[in-house]
Amino acid sequence: MDPVDFAARDASGKPERVSREGKELWPSEAAVSDRVGRLIEFWGFKRNMGRVWSVLYLSPDPLSAEDLREALQLSSGAVSMTLSELGRWGVVRKVWVQGDRRDYFSAEIQLWKMISRVFNEREKAEVENAIEAFEEALVSLEPLKASPDPKVRARAELQFERITNLLELARLGKRLLDALVTTAKIDAEPLVRFLLQRPK
Amino acid sequence: MDPVDFAARDASGKPERVSREGKELWPSEAAVSDRVGRLIEFWGFKRNMGRVWSVLYLSPDPLSAEDLREALQLSSGAVSMTLSELGRWGVVRKVWVQGDRRDYFSAEIQLWKMISRVFNEREKAEVENAIEAFEEALVSLEPLKASPDPKVRARAELQFERITNLLELARLGKRLLDALVTTAKIDAEPLVRFLLQRPK
DNA sequence: CACATATTTCAAAAAGTTTTGAAACTTCCG
DNA sequence: CGGAAGTTTCAAAACTTTTTGAAATATGTG
Questions:
Q1: How far is the CA of A43 from the C1' of D6 (A)?
Q2: Of B109, B166, B195, Cβ closest to residue A198
Q3: Does residue B197 register a pLDDT over 80?
């Protein structure tokens, strides 16, 4: 496989800055990171993003890229890319650890904040694009509703109506995301819980 | 107003014209089906599922597999597979057309019903798996919380707490999906609209 | 029944995505 | 400055998913 060598270098004896001592994941960590990886993959991210985040989330201390490489058996390149992607999503932060020159990483632990950020950036953009496209389609349909050909007219009218439905659905989705994000800035969980009780 | 040929947009720039009169997509159809395809792909389905569904949704009459093949420039195999997949998701139905022996297809036009069905079958399963995995991880952690080694104990406690947070989030998600599905059976749109007004 | 046409299936090809590993780069330290 | 350790980059390889096209199958009709 791959020649891993690290044993010798930790002679430094910095008292409290640790490389993890148990390099292997506990079963609970393995299970959770695997499951989060799948959930998140399903949701459109890379599995490794979920796994790396989970390991960090369950770790008491920040971890180095090397720690993660070992824990998850990834290449250094994969770790680096995954971390920087997670960083771009704002779900993992670099932590400066005194007395050690390598970078350490820790996970955002405010779950709700994290989720709302992702919704806001990723989902919202997609929904907004759709809204725009639907609006344009409606505009392009407008002249056809006055066509001399009654078949064309009928078709244009039907399409206009249906695209309008899609547009409304998309707007509803956008509002939902907006609401989520806005309220997440406060403290969403109780609120959502409250909302879910109402349906009656 | 000119019909748009999907294939013409793809790289080659060679618009291989085929279709008979009336089979081409209008620009509004092309744009909408493209956008729905992307939205849905983003959401984990195949792009063609979104495109086929959209074309059906915007068509006044049911279409045959052949019609779709032409409109979207797909192979017959692709159309067949896409349609049967859409059928399995219950978003497209076969329609019997008198005096024609080929099958015709039409799209589910109750958007909300459609969406809630998909949520129910696909998302819920995934969330439920996650809940199960988290619960199991908590159980496996239990004995470690009584470990003689204080480091192990501390670590186990931290993990226990964090996995509990994940579990609660997952349960919240599940409840949200449940609520969506339940209320969608009635008439969800107004309800959701109502819910979204509250947060203030 | 034989025919023509419609539909499904499926192995192989194409397209797309993720991971790797080695080289280039950066930073810190003596 | 020179070197050691850590990090990033990126082209190529491995892997995954999607699409194709042709053969197999099914179905209604004369």
A1: 33
A2: B195
A3: no
